[in-house]
Structures are given as structure tokens and as C-alpha cells.
Write a structure and sequence with these properties.
Elements: H1 2-29, E1 35-37, E2 59-63, H2 74-78, E3 88-89, E4 92-93, E5 96-99, E6 109-119, E7 122-123, E8 138-144, E9 150-154, E10 157-158, E11 170-174, E12 187-192, E13 198-202, E14 239-247, H3 252-256, H4 266-295, H5 298-318
Antiparallel strand pairs: 1-2, 2-14, 3-4, 5-6, 5-14, 6-10, 6-13, 7-9, 8-9, 11-12
Amino acid sequence: MADGWGWIREGLLALGLIGLLVAALWVTTGSLPPMVVVESSSMMHANEGEVGAIDPGDLVLVMSTDRRTNVITYAEAAEEGNQFSGWSKHGDFGDVIIYSKNGGSDTPVIHRAMLEAVANATLSPTDRERSLCPTGASWDPVSIDATGEVGTCVLTWDAPGTDQWNVEQINWTFESYKTCPSNPHGLMVQGWDPGHAGLLTLGDHNRCDVDQGQAAYPLANGLTDENGRPVEAVRADWLVGVAGAEIPWLGTVKLAASSNAAQVTTHSWQMLGLSAVVLLLGTYALERATQRLMSGSPEVAQATLEESIKGRKSVEADGGEIVDSGDGDSELGGGSEADDSEE
């Protein structure tokens, strides 16, 4: 029974520690769940993955937009003289974000924020309830109208980090982005009218195939949501969070039981196994070191001595030897013989 309670106690202790860890991560990130498992190879930088980039099977902390209120784009980080110049996360310029495709319920996407479209010139809608705009303007449900209400009709756009200001369509070339095999000039945005304020996004491993597809670049395939619609510029209310620290390999266990297990590289499987071995050996070594340290403490030595004395008294009593009963007298053990002869 004691052994059974011991296992229960250990189980409750483990659950308590896991609960404390999740609570600590929640406090740190402001998100629940506080981390996501990367399921695809769209953010890889090397064929076998690398620490610092985002690979299949990695765990990534999700920083709430309440904590990270400003998303820094690739364009801003790559621009010389910009206040965010040089800002890099997960192996390249700019922030990596987690977002829901068109605000739907499909699996969120974790890609890099390349460029932001911000409303410049606006008009109030002709019919706010039906989202109707004057000719030449597009309805934007997230930007602020001149009346102070949420939702306005946009005539022109700004793109921070570029020379695109007060333009009807955004045209820009990321000359520093050189992973486009079909375009030696780098990643290009051509004739993009985002329709509403939001972010242009791209997976680092997707060879300049921006998520917003042909709306942003004629040769891009882009992504679609669960209803088959092309993914639009990522609105602020579609953001799940900003990618924080990466914990490599540990999410591989989850992918092992899913249809995405094939995305995990051989190197990640090997490193997961090595991590498990190191963790087990480290735990064993820590336990042994703790036992050695505790055995040399005065308290443990005193307890051991008292236990030894108690055990010796018990053995002597069972063997019929005279033992101290604690009241100053002596008594005979059950196996001893008394001389009752009379003189």
C-alpha cells in the first residue's frame, strides 16, 4: 500500500510541476497555450534544420500581441537608418508571426512578416452597415475612419521601411532577399492593393512564394484558407501572436503521431533521442549527487544513528538479551531460562 501511495505522490508531484511550468510560460508570454509545435518545413534554412531557425518538430513560444504590440517587418529591419534597422529573429530580418488564415479556424501559420500596408488617405463609407465605399476606395474593417469609428474606405497606402508612401498600389523589391530562384533581383511585390491594412507574409523556405499569392506578385501561388479562398493581408485581429524563443526538437513527439511526421528531418529525430538520453543521465547524476550530499549532513547522520540504535534494541529483545526498558529495571527476554531452585 505504501508503494502505491508513493507512485501516486510522485505522479501528483509531476503534474504539479507541469502545471507550474505552464503557468510560468503563460505569465511570460501572455498566451494560452503558450507555445506551438511547428508542423511544416516552410521556415527551414538548412536541409537538415539548424538551431536558431524554425524547423519541423520545434516548439516556439507564442508572445501575445498584448505583450508585443508592434510587429517589426523585414522591410523595416532591412532599411538603413530605420529605427528597427538590423532587427532579426529566427535567422533573418524582422519578426516571425503566428496567424489564422483569413481569421478562420484552420491550423495557424507561422511565417515571417515581410511588409506592412498602412492606410493613408481615407474616406468615410457611404453605407457603413453594408461596408459600401465611394468609387476608387476599398473597405478596410480595421483601420480608423476620420469619424473615429473602426472601419474606413482606403484610397492610398503606406509601406513602412520602403519608399512607398501615399500610393494606390504597392510596388517594391526586397533587393537583400536572395532566395528567389526565378527572380535574380530578389523578392518583388507588384501592383498590390491589400484591400485592408495588414501584413505581407512569407515562409523562409518558400522561395519567394508569398502567402498572399498573385494579389501581391503574379508568379506567386500563395496560400488558401479552409474555404479555398486566397489568403489576404494579415489583419491585426487575425494575429495569434509573435514567435518568441525556440525550443528545438521537443515537439517531434507530437508530430510522430500525426500525418506530418514525414516533415521531421533525420537530424531532428537523432537530436531528440540524444536529448532524452542526456536528460535521463542528468537526472540520475543529480539524484546520486543529492543523495551523497544529504548523507553527509548532520541531520541525516543523527537520524541514521537513531535508527541503528532502535534496530539493535529490537534485535536484542527478540534474542532474549537483557535490554534497557527505559525505567531503570531489567527484564528477561522470552527465550531466557530463570533459576527457580531453592537452597
